[in-house]
């Protein structure tokens, strides 16, 4: 089963197994591929998760997820994306808090 | 700027580094209209050099220009283009003395620097950007050299782009990270051996403590180590230390070109990654509805 994201979505059924899906993500590379793979691998329901760049001249990745227990593969993908988003948000908040702290400490000796 | 990120995995740290290099947008010269170039520098070489000059304009206030429909001569609107002008002519200095050979005395305007690039506001840009002057970040970038009679008359259009498209759009001089080195001493090292151990590492990493009259080596600040592994060259010292890295402690070094301050760049990079995730979440949701 193939999901073509960010272009006309085409779904090709690969038997009745919804748990094994290869998503084709356009305009992506290792930046999102590797970090998303890391987040999804932490999920215990996922039996297999990996991505390949089919050809370096084309900027698209084949992202494969295989779940155990018949869970539809879009679910760990969605969860992984949400978790990655949360991690980034946390990093952003922590970073901004620390930078503000640092800037205040810089200004204090002048006062 | 240098900052530490602790507790994160290599995949995500690398994603931030890649985004800082290639996917944070900036403004840079894209189209160069050369009305007159009688200098010795070829048109395309000059255009290439002009493209690489960093332009001080906050890219968050501009939109991307959509290509395709517009013809090559299209002016571009005020929301997506910055217009810059470079108009300079070299002439002989009438006040120079008869027998000097110094070009600085003989000619006027013979070196074209980036400070000669002037901003031409389009539309309402003059009001919107009244306080922050738009122009090159640095004034002393040498663009070309001229001799009397040669002139440059160039108009440049700057657009928003990302480093993936062309390296001139990269907002960082460089962005890199290293892992925090971890040096553990497996046994007590004292005396002359401790002195030699201290020499093997960068200054400040190992300190000699005075315990009961003998000097004992102690790891004080492993962050300063440059990991040259000099200690492994000495046969008696190499079994005493264990060199490694802390796997989730990343020391990022971000050097900005001056367009945006480095802490703003890091926050923008994190937002880009969040936006990527959101894009795919929206796609997932919209395909699930069908």
UniProtKB/TrEMBL annotation, chain A:
Specify whether Transcription is a keyword of the entry.
yes
Q: Which domain of life is it from?
A: Eukaryota
Enumerate the Pfam families for this protein.
RNA_pol_L_2
| Keyword rRNA processing on entry | no
One GO term under biological process is: transcription by RNA polymerase III
Q: List the Gene Ontology MF annotations in alphabetical order.
A: DNA binding; DNA-directed RNA polymerase activity; protein dimerization activity
Domain DNA-directed RNA polymerase RBP11-like dimerisation as annotated: residue spans: 20-93
Sorted alphabetically, the keyword list is: DNA-directed RNA polymerase, Nucleus, Transcription
Q: Where in the cell is it found?
A: Nucleus
* Chief localization: nucleus
Give the CC-aspect GO terms. Answer: RNA polymerase I complex; RNA polymerase III complex
Q: Which Gene3D superfamilies match?
A: RNA polymerase, RBP11-like subunit
Matches recorded under InterPro entries = RBP11-like, RBP11-like_dimer, RNA_pol_Rpb11_13-16kDa_CS, RNAP_AC19, Rpo11-like
The UniProt entry, under PANTHER family, shows:
DNA-DIRECTED RNA POLYMERASE I,II,III, DNA-DIRECTED RNA POLYMERASES I AND III SUBUNIT RPAC2
The entry's family comment says:
Belongs to the archaeal Rpo11/eukaryotic RPB11/RPC19 RNA polymerase subunit family.
Q: Which HAMAP family match?
A: RNApol_arch_Rpo11
Q: What is this protein called?
A: DNA-directed RNA polymerases I and III subunit RPAC2
- Whichever gene encodes this chain, its name is polr1d
UniProtKB/TrEMBL annotation, chain B:
Query: What subcellular compartments does it reside in?
Result: Nucleus
Cite the DNA-directed RNA polymerase RpoA/D/Rpb3-type domain residue spans from the record: 1-283
Query: Which domain of life does the protein's organism represent?
Result: Eukaryota
Q: Name one GO molecular function term.
A: protein dimerization activity
| Record keyword Nucleotide-binding present | no
Claim: Nucleus is one of the keywords in the record:
yes
PROSITE patterns assigned: RNA_POL_D_30KD (PS00446)
GO CC annotations, alphabetized: RNA polymerase I complex; RNA polymerase III complex
Q: Which UniProt keywords apply?
A: DNA-directed RNA polymerase, Nucleus, Transcription
GO aspect biological process, one term: DNA-templated transcription
Q: Which InterPro entries match?
A: DNA-dir_RNA_pol_30-40kDasu_CS, DNA-dir_RNA_pol_insert, DNA-dir_RNA_pol_RpoA/D/Rpb3, RBP11-like, RNAP_Rpo3/Rpb3/RPAC1, RNAPI/III_AC40, RNApol_insert_sf, Rpo3/RPB3_RNA_Pol_subunit
Q: Which Pfam families match?
A: RNA_pol_A_bac, RNA_pol_L
Family per record: Belongs to the archaeal Rpo3/eukaryotic RPB3 RNA polymerase subunit family.
Q: Output this protein's name.
A: DNA-directed RNA polymerases I and III subunit RPAC1
Upper classification of the organism? Eukaryota, Metazoa, Chordata, Craniata, Vertebrata
């Amino acid at each position: 089963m193939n999901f073509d994201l960010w272009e006309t979505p085409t779904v090709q059924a690969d038997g009745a197994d919804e748990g094994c899906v290869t998503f084709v993500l356009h305009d992506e590379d290792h930046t999102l591929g590797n970090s998303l793979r890391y987040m999804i691998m932490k999920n215990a329901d996922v039996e297999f998760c990996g991505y390949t760049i089919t050809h370096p001249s084309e900027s698209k990745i084949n992202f494969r997820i295989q779940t155990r227990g018949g869970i539809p593969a879009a679910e760990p993908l969605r969860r992984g994306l949400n978790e990655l988003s949360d991690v980034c948000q946390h990093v952003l908040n922590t970073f901004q808090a620390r930078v503000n702290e640092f800037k205040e400490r810089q200004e204090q000796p002048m006062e | 700027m240098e900052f530490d990120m602790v507790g994160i995995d290599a995949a995500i740290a690398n994603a931030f580094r890649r985004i800082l290099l290639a996917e944070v947008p900036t403004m840079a010269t894209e189209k160069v209209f050369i009305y007159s170039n009688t200098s010795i520098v070829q048109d395309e070489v000059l255009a290439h050099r002009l493209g690489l000059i960093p332009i001080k304009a906050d890219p968050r206030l501009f939109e991307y220009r959509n290509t395709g429909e517009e013809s090559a001569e299209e002016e571009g609107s005020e929301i997506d283009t910055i217009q810059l002008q470079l108009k300079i002519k070299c002439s002989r200095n009438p006040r120079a003395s008869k027998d000097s050979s110094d070009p600085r005395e003989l000619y006027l305007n013979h070196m074209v620097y980036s400070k000669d690039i002037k901003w031409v506001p389009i539309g309402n840009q003059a009001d919107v950007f009244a306080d922050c002057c738009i122009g090159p970040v640095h004034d002393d970038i040498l663009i070309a050299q001229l001799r009397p009679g040669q002139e440059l008359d160039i108009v440049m259009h700057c657009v928003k782009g990302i480093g993936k498209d062309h390296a001139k759009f990269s907002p960082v001089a460089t962005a890199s990270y290293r892992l925090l080195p971890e040096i553990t001493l497996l046994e007590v090292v004292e005396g002359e051996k401790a002195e030699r151990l201290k020499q093997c590492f960068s200054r400040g990493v190992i300190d000699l403590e005075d315990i009961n009259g003998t000097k004992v080596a102690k790891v004080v600040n492993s962050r300063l180590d440059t990991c040259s592994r000099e200690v492994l060259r000495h046969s008696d010292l190499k079994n005493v230390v264990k060199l490694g890295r802390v796997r989730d402690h990343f020391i990022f070094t971000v050097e900005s070109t001056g367009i945006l301050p480095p802490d703003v760049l890091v926050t923008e990079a994190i937002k880009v990654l969040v936006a990527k995730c959101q894009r795919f979440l929206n796609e997932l949701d919209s395909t699930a509805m069908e």
